[in-house]
Amino acid sequence: MADGNTSRFQADQTALIVRVPDAEPAVRAWRERFDPSAQAEVPAHVTVLFPFLDKSRTDARVCSALAAMLGSHRAFDLRFESCGRFPWVLYLAPEPETQLRRLTRVIADRWPEAPPYGGQFAEIVPHLTVADGQDDAVLDEIEADLLGRLPLTSRISSVGLMEQDGTSWHERAAFALLE
Question: Is the pLDDT reported for residue 8 higher than 90?
Answer without folding.
Answer: no
